[in-house]
Amino acid sequence: MVKTNSIGLRACAALAAIAMMTTGAIGQAVPDEGTPGEAQLNLPDNPTIYGPSTIAMRKATAIINGEIITETDVAQRLALVITANGGRVPAEERERLRLQVLRNLIDETLQIQEAKANEITVPDEEVQQSYVRVARNFGRAPDDFAKYLRENGSSEASIKRQIRGEIAWSRLLRRRVEAGVSDAEVQAVIDRLNAAKGQAEYHIGEIYLSATSETAGEVFQNGRRIIEQIRAGGSFSAYARQFSEASTKSVGGDVGWIRAGQLPDALDTAMREMKIGQIAGPIEIPGGFSILYMVDQRQVLTADPRDALLSLRQISLPFAPGTTQAQASEKAAAFAAATAKIQGCGGATEIAKSVGAEVVDNSQIPVKNLPPQLQDMMLNLQVGQATPPFGSQEDGVRVLVLCGRDDPQVAEGPSFEKIKGDMEDQKVNRRAQIYLRDLRRDAVVDYR
C-alpha cells in the first residue's frame, strides 16, 4: 500500500513507487472515466474579465472547512523545502514555491480532516519515530534537528504535521481504497520479464506538469525554471513533491524501472538518449509537459557490471594553498610519470612515498558508487592497473589502483510478492488522486 515513511525532502528519495512492467503509461494521474456529472466546459474564446484580476492563491492564509492555515504555517513549510535544497533558491523562485506550499498545505489539511472523519488517529509516539528517522537522514540527532530547523526558519511542529498527515492518509487509503491484484496479473508481468531478458531498462524520475493550449507557454517556462534550479543543485525529489501532478508525487517523482517502448514516443526518445544523472525537458506530451531524470540503467534479468565490488588503493597528492596553475601542472606531470610505473598494488605504496603522496585503501566499493566519469574506466582496468591521474587545482591530483574485483551474480529479478505489492501500490496511488480530487471539490476554502 502507500508507503508511510515517505516523509518529504531527502527522506523520500529512499522510497520508490515502482511502475516496472505493469503498464505502458508513465506516472501521470489517471482520471476515472465515466464519472457521473462530468461534462465539457463551455468557455468563450475571448472572455472579458469583470472585477479585479488578483489571484486568490496569492493570499497568505486560508481557511479550509473552518481550519486555519496561517502565514506562519506557510513560511515554516517553505523554509523546510528551501533547506532541503541547500538554501539555493532565488527570490522569484521562492514566491512560486510559496504558492505551491500553500496548495500542498490545503491538500494536507483535507487529508487530515478526512482521516479524522473516519476515526483514524496517529499516536504521538509513531510520529516521533518517523521524525527521528527524518532527522537521521539529515545526519542529526532529534534535538539538534529541532534546533537546525529553527535556525533555518522552520520548526519541529511543521515537519511533524506533515508526518502525521502522510501516515493518516496512508491508513485511510488502506481502509477505503481497494487495490486487488490477481495472481494471473502478477504472473503475466513475470512472463514479460523473462521474455525481455537482456533488454535495456531505465530507472527514471518524473515531474509532470499539466497544461492546456492556453497555459502551455506559461507551464513550459515554469518547467524550464524548475530544471534550472535542479541543475543549480536543487533536489529533484523535493521539486517533484512540490510541483509534480503525477501519482508519483508522494515518492519524490520516482517512476521506478521501465523499458523502452513503455512511455509516450517523445519521452521514450529522450529517455534512450539520456545518461545517468542527466535531466531532460520540459518535454511536451498529451495533456502537459514532463521533466525526466535518469537515476540508473541496467539490463532486464542480467547482471549489471556496475554492481561489481572493487578493492581500491587511492594515491593522492594534495596541492598546498596558494599553488599556482603552473606549479600544479608541473607537480601533476611528475605525479603522472611516477604513477605510470605502478605494477600492482604491492608496489604502489613505495611509489607514493617517492613523490610525497598519501595512500588510502578502500574495499567493497560498488562501481556504480563512483563518479560517472570513472565507472567505464574502472570496468576496463585489470587487477594491478591504475587509472590516469585526475583531480583539480583545489583538490590535488590522484590515481586509483585496482587491487581486486568481485563480479556481480546474475540477477534473479523481483519476487512474486514484490511485483504484486508494487502493482497494488500503483493502483492505490491512482485511486488516491481521484479521492483527493473529490475532497477538493467538496471543500469550503476561504483565502485571507
TrEMBL record:
<keyword id="KW-0574">Periplasm</keyword>
<dbReference type="Pfam" id="PF00639">
    <property type="entry name" value="Rotamase"/>
</dbReference>
<dbReference type="InterPro" id="IPR027304">
    <property type="entry name" value="Trigger_fact/SurA_dom_sf"/>
</dbReference>
<dbReference type="Pfam" id="PF09312">
    <property type="entry name" value="SurA_N"/>
</dbReference>
<dbReference type="InterPro" id="IPR000297">
    <property type="entry name" value="PPIase_PpiC"/>
</dbReference>
<feature type="domain" description="PpiC">
    <location>
        <begin position="199"/>
        <end position="296"/>
    </location>
</feature>
<dbReference type="GO" id="GO:0003755">
    <property type="term" value="F:peptidyl-prolyl cis-trans isomerase activity"/>
</dbReference>
<dbReference type="InterPro" id="IPR015391">
    <property type="entry name" value="SurA_N"/>
</dbReference>
<feature type="signal peptide">
    <location>
        <begin position="1"/>
        <end position="27"/>
    </location>
</feature>
<dbReference type="InterPro" id="IPR046357">
    <property type="entry name" value="PPIase_dom_sf"/>
</dbReference>
<keyword id="KW-0413">Isomerase</keyword>
<keyword id="KW-0697">Rotamase</keyword>
<dbReference type="InterPro" id="IPR050280">
    <property type="entry name" value="OMP_Chaperone_SurA"/>
</dbReference>
<keyword id="KW-0143">Chaperone</keyword>
<keyword id="KW-0732">Signal</keyword>
<protein>
    <recommendedName>
        <fullName>Parvulin-like PPIase</fullName>
    </recommendedName>
</protein>
